[in-house]
Structure formats: structure tokens, C-alpha cells
Write a structure and sequence with these properties.
By secondary structure, the protein is mainly α. It has helices spanning 2-13, 21-35, 42-56, 67-73, 75-88, 91-130, 137-145, 151-158, 162-174, 192-203, and strands at 148-149, 179-183, 186-190. α2 (21-35) packs antiparallel against α3.
């Protein structure tokens, strides 16, 4: 196994390879999954290697291409084509499958990013119009960092007191920009529009 992983590492990092980076990524993924070096988690690690490799090749600015969704939704075909390469050397079908996954995931990711940008712009407008005393870019960023925020997050990121952070979030909840939800002893302020964007994306598949 060490010899196989060493050879794979050299293939990943070698500068002399003349294969297209996307083709090379597909080969790397197949080889890693075939070596199967860990008792568990090889699929997840293999998909992480995919995006890190594409980032290293300057095809991605940051590793945000979520190929796991495509693989999970086409799992039977994924395993069939993996095995077909081992059994008959059917590389073409495997490469086309992986390239299709990259294309589909890239298009979905762009649509999602565009949707988030539009939603942020609309939220920024509403903050300025309806809550001008609260508006700041830091607050806007906080509302979109995750689908929800908490008093502690706003307190830390905006460098304000806990009562001030609580006041900000409660006012936004009262104004309809956030949905306040209590779970146990904690309050969560949910960016419902952002959640709905993700839900619609899933439902549209």
C-alpha cells in the first residue's frame, strides 16, 4: 500500500504530466479509491482530494466544488464504472462520468452563488431602508455566514456588547428579516430566505 500511495502522490504532484487537469483528477480519484488506504472514509477523502487538486491546478480559486452530491445521487453508476475500469480497462466511460459530474456541479454552484448574491443585495437594501441604525457590512456578512446566527456570533464579529447584539437580532426578527427560534437555553436567529434558497435548490433536482 505504501508503494502504491507513494506512486499516486508522485502522480498528483508531478509537473511533467501532460494530461488535462480534469482528466488527471479523474484518474487520481480512481486510483485512490482502488488503493482504498483507510478502513473508512475513503470516498469522502477521495472527493476532498479532487477539489484540492483542481485548486492546486488553478481551476478553482477555493475548494468549493461539491462533487459529493453528484456521486451520491449517481452512486450505482459510480461504483459500476469504478469496477469496469478494474475489470476491463473501461477508462473512457469513467472519465466521461467524472467530467459530467464536474460540469453539473459547477453549473449548480454558480446558480447557487448567484442566488446568494441577489439575496444579500436585497437584504442589504432592506437593512438600509428599514434598520438604518443597525446596518453595517459586518452585520450583513454575519447573517449570511451560516443559515443562522446567534447573539454570541454577532457580539464577537461586530465587537459589541451582549445586550447590543441581542437588541440587533431581536429587532431584525421583529422586522421579518430573521426568524427567532429557541432551542433549550439558546436563541437561534434563522436567515429563512437563505434556508429557502437551499431547500428550493434541493427540490429542483
Amino acid at each position: 500500500m505504501r508503494a502504491l500511495m507513494t506512486a499516486l502522490e508522485r502522480f498528483i504532484n508531478g509537473a511533467e504530466c501532460d494530461l488535462d487537469p480534469l482528466t488527471r483528477m479523474a484518474v487520481i480519484h480512481h486510483q485512490f479509491e482502488s488503493i482504498h488506504p483507510f478502513p473508512d472514509g475513503n470516498g469522502r477523502i477521495g472527493r476532498i482530494i479532487n477539489v484540492l487538486f483542481l485548486t492546486r491546478c488553478d481551476l478553482l480559486d477555493i475548494p468549493i466544488l461539491y462533487l459529493s452530491r453528484f456521486v451520491t445521487q449517481n452512486k450505482a453508476e459510480y461504483y459500476r464504472l469504478l469496477q469496469a475500469v478494474r475489470d476491463t480497462g473501461a477508462w473512457e466511460s469513467w472519465l466521461l462520468y467524472m467530467l459530467s459530474g464536474v460540469e453539473e456541479t459547477a453549473i449548480e454552484s454558480l446558480h447557487l452563488v448567484e442566488g446568494i448574491q441577489l439575496l444579500m443585495a436585497d437584504t442589504k437594501r432592506r437593512l438600509r431602508e428599514q434598520h438604518p441604525k443597525l446596518y453595517s457590512q459586518d452585520l450583513l456578512n454575519n447573517l449570511f455566514r451560516y443559515p443562522y446566527t446567534r447573539v454570541e456570533f454577532v457580539q464577537q464579529e461586530l465587537n459589541v456588547s451582549r445586550p447590543t447584539a441581542t437588541k440587533y437580532l431581536d429587532e431584525l426578527a421583529q422586522g421579518g428579516l430573521l426568524l427567532k427560534h429557541r432551542a433549550g437555553r439558546n436563541n437561534y436567529y434563522i436567515n429563512q430566505s437563505l434556508v429557502e434558497l437551499f431547500v428550493k435548490r434541493e427540490a429542483g433536482r
